[in-house]
Amino acid sequence: MVKPEDGARVPVLKAERISKTFGEVQVLFSVELDVLPGEVHALVGENGAGKSTFIKILSGFEVPTSGRILLDGEPVSLPANSAAEALGIVMIHQEFNLAEHLTVTESLFLGREICRFGVLDRRAMRAETRRVLDMLGSRVDENALISSLAVADKQMVEIAKAISREARVIFMDEPTAVLSREETDVLFDQVRKLKAKGTSFVFVSHKLDEVMEISDRVTVLRDGQWIKTAPTSLLDGEAIAQLMVGRELSSLYPSKHEPNVDEEIVLSVRGLSTGYVRDVSFDLRKGEVLGFSGLIGSGRTELMEAIAGLRSRTTGDVEIRGRALPVHDFREATARGLAYMTKDRKGRGLLLDEGMTSNLTLQSIGQHVRHGYLDPSSEAKAMARAKRRFDIRVRDDRVRVGRMSGGNQQKLLLAKIMETEPQIIIIDEPTRGIDVGTKQQIYHFIAALAREGRSIIVVSSELPEVIGLCTRVAVMREGHLVGMLEGEEISEQMIMRYAAGLRRQTAV
Amino acid sequence: MEVSTNSEIEERVPRRRTWRDVDLRAVAPFAALVLLLIVGALVNPNFIGLTNLANVATRSAFIAIIAVGATFVISSGDLDLSVGSMVAFVASLMILFMNSGAIADPSLMLVAAMVLAVVIGSACGLANGLITTVGRIEPFIATLGTMGIYRGLTTWLSQGGAITLNSPELQSLYRPAYFGTVLGVPVPILVILLVTAIAAFVLYRTRYGRHVVAVGSSREVARYSGIAVDRVRTIAFVIQGLCVAVAVLLYVPRLGSTSATTGILWELQAITAVVVGGTALKGGAGRVWGTICGAFILELVGNIMLLSNFISEYLIGAIQGSIIIVAMLVQRSLTRKS
Fold first, then answer.
1. At what angle do helices B106-133 and B229-255 cross, to 10 degrees?
2. What is the pLDDT of residues B283-315, one digit of tens each?
3. Which of A370, A400, A420 is the last residue of a domain?
4. CB–CB of A382/A368 below 8 Å?
């Protein structure tokens, strides 16, 4: 045993000079990482920095081209695929590896069921599952079907699975991307408890505030290179962001331009109800950037989809420049210059198996029809224009969209929406899961669109984003619009007060 | 708007096309066709003769034309199992109409009967489409149902026997539609080429074609892009019905008769041709010329078995069944590589 003295602790897992090449492309250049027992180690970097590849190598899902991995100071070669779990190294994927039709207990023991005389010992497995869940302080029912669980509970089951396999190092790839703030808090509590018992975590995230909150040390990767490893306490969010992009981020947010109070009202919503969205009214002026804030599940996306005509509304009117918009008619809304950009770019925004051009022109294909047939050269011109305008960077123009980085996908989605020449643009979560550099670009695109006289609604769960971009912020809570903040009122504390139900404006 | 000025004059580096750029999935069916031709030539020297090959192509016409329609349905993410029954149903009604003697003039009667077949075929396709989209029933189940309905109606119309074109005058007038040639090329081959060319144009060069691929790749993305998903799917079924009608127009002059067993298992052959041709069964990429290639392959395999003496031709069904499984395996392994 090694004494737990400072500086003398032997890392559980250590990666030395790891390089990885795919075909002719080198994605990792001699990257180093060491994980100490009972440590939460954050791994950050822009999209495409090589984080995912790196943790796949460390958890045995990929084989490094060169370099070695040491477990407890001994060089090991990790067995292929999930067999590394036997060594106590567990990876929790972004998309969970849970079969929806199994119960929690069955999931936990999948592939290593306890048997007595060849028959499943259900009672023993249930008891063990309960023990692990209790240890985690989770109230998930061990007999519940996975499909009935909330996302946060599924995450908890994954963690329980890791623990029941006596994991020593748990890799988590953006664990909080799909969690609300409350769910994130629960997850972090569990992480701290396990950490106290000596389990180590490697935590990949784009959310720097969470990195600051939970991690002990941070390792920054940029373009496949190791940049820095430092105790989190010596850094702040700004410093990490700078290390990630390698340049000053002085102007993450562009300057705001408030429209004149007598500027034309382009969109007017009165008493709109749909699903559990109740009686929402607001106006949007020409050239305005209006934010919609609130907790996840507060009904913002439902409201916006009802405005755009993607879902039906039970009551209420939507007017564009004084003319009523029919219910549930997305194409009419598009024709009248309203565009909705979904937050689910992979599931609803882009055809992942297709190329960039057919994605770009999908919504505006009518513009490229000449005498009844499509004109490929017109489409190619639109693509070249969009690449310049939105700085879409790809090595090969014919790449499948599913292979592009999240940031480039998001730019392509924005370009696709803009092909319909909208005057009113609703952007749902403009920067979900993309790196700081691209975020900054998207913020500037939004500001530039507003300066051109277009009106923009930004729906976002990231408070700094809403505060940094918008001249007015609407706050929703449980389907109601509970506050409309302007000017000095726009602050994290104020928005949270409305979002959490501590304050409420009677007439909005 | 932020326009990066330095990329105004973008360098157009002409990338050299290497063998790696070739889409294996698009090429595979044609490679298989060439391979089969070589095998056939080795088995029997008569095989590679122009007469034999023209015969094979002519015989593949029914399946090829139906499979072109199936390419649309499958590309849009659906499936139509009713095509074989639909052939029997449409053909029966067409012959019954010609036997009715409603129009005295034979040429006029023939034209009217052909129009009727096209209308009935489209209507059958429309029924499939509406049951699937408006009724929100899985296409597999919906067309399994109509497959039974069309087949049952045919059996009822024919009272279990055969429906035969009575008028010898009409028969001789209609015969050239299958047996005739234009500039030495059999009419069915010309029809295949025409139907395929139109289909390829619609699928690759029109707005509707782009919508089919989008709907087949992801219904949700299509919906969020303002595409009328249900309309696109329904029209694909109508195109399928139209293609079945065209196949019937060639089928009736060939035998001048239908029965309850007409077109049995043609749905299997049509789907096989589509899959062999490289169209993904889960929707998305549609390959019309690949489909035609697939239909030729199916017919060639049968022909080779007939000409060779070492495999019984009674095994044709089993071989065709195996081909669809092999085609799926090949498709999947090629997807993984690319």
1. 140
2. 887 899 999 999 999 999 888 888 887 778 788
3. A420
4. yes
User: What SS3 class is residue A105?
Assistant: helix
- For residue A362, which residues of chain B lie inside 8 Å, CB to CB? 210, 214, 221-222, 225, 227
d(CA A470, CA A455): 11
Range of lowest pLDDT (A17-21, A89-93, B5-9, B35-39): B5-9
For residue A256, tell me if it sits in a domain. no
Asked whether residue A37 is domain-assigned, the answer is: yes
Residue B284 structure tokens: 């998305």
**Residue in this structure with the two tokens 């799909």, named with its chain if needed:** A178
The Cα of B25 is separated from the nearest Cα of chain A by a number of Å equal to 14
Angstroms from A298 CA to nearest CA on chain B = 21
Q: What is the CATH number of the domain that holds A47?
A: 3.40.50.300
Give the relative orientation of helices B83-100 and B61-75 as an angle to the nearest 10 degrees.
Answer: 130
**How far apart (Å, rounded) are the C-alpha atoms in residues A401 and A405?**
9
3-state secondary structure of A283: strand
Question: Looking at this protein, which amino acid is placed at residue A497?
Answer: R
Q: How far apart are CA B69 and CA B288, in angstroms?
A: 9
∠ CA A392-A396-A401, nearest 5°, is 65
Whole-angstrom Cα distance, residue A35 to residue A90? 14
Strand, coil or helix: what is A77? coil
Pairing of strands A373-374, A369-370: antiparallel
Q: Are the C-beta atoms of A84 and A78 separated by less than 8 Å? A: yes
Specify the 3-state DSSP secondary structure of B186: strand
**Cβ within 8 Å of B, A 330-369:** 330-331, 334, 340, 342, 344, 347-354, 358, 361-363, 365-366, 369
User: Do the Cβ atoms of B221 and A334 come within 8 Å?
Assistant: no
The listed range with the strongest mean pLDDT (A109-113, A263-267, A484-488, B119-123) is B119-123
The residue among A508 and B62 whose pLDDT is bigger is: B62
Structure tokens at B337: 């590589």
Q: Please return the burial class of A187, using the count of CB atoms within 10 Å of its CB with bins 0-12, 13-18 and 19+.
A: buried
**Distance separating alpha carbons of residues A381 and A367, to the nearest angstrom:** 12
Tell which residue, B275, B240, B113, B248, has the closest CA to residue B188: B248
Residues A71 and A189 reside in one and the same domain: yes
Which parts of A93-224 fold into alpha helices (H)?
A: 104-108, 122-135, 151-164, 181-196, 208-214
Fold observed for domain B55-337: ABC transporter involved in vitamin B12 uptake, BtuC (1.10.3470)
The answer to whether residues A363 and A392 touch, using CB atoms and an 8 Å cutoff, is: no
Angstrom distances, CA of residue B268 to CA of B71, B85, B276: 13, 12, 12
Q: What tokens does A7 get?
A: 């500086």
A vs B: CB pairs below 8 A? 85
Residue B170 — very low, low, confident or very high, per pLDDT cuts 50/70/90?
A: very high
Instruction: Tokens for A200, please give them.
Output: 């180590």
Cα separation, B208 vs B74, in Å, equals 15
Residue of B nearest to A389 (CA): B3
Tell me phi and psi for residue B78, to 5 degrees: -115, -170
Domain ranges of chain B: 55-337
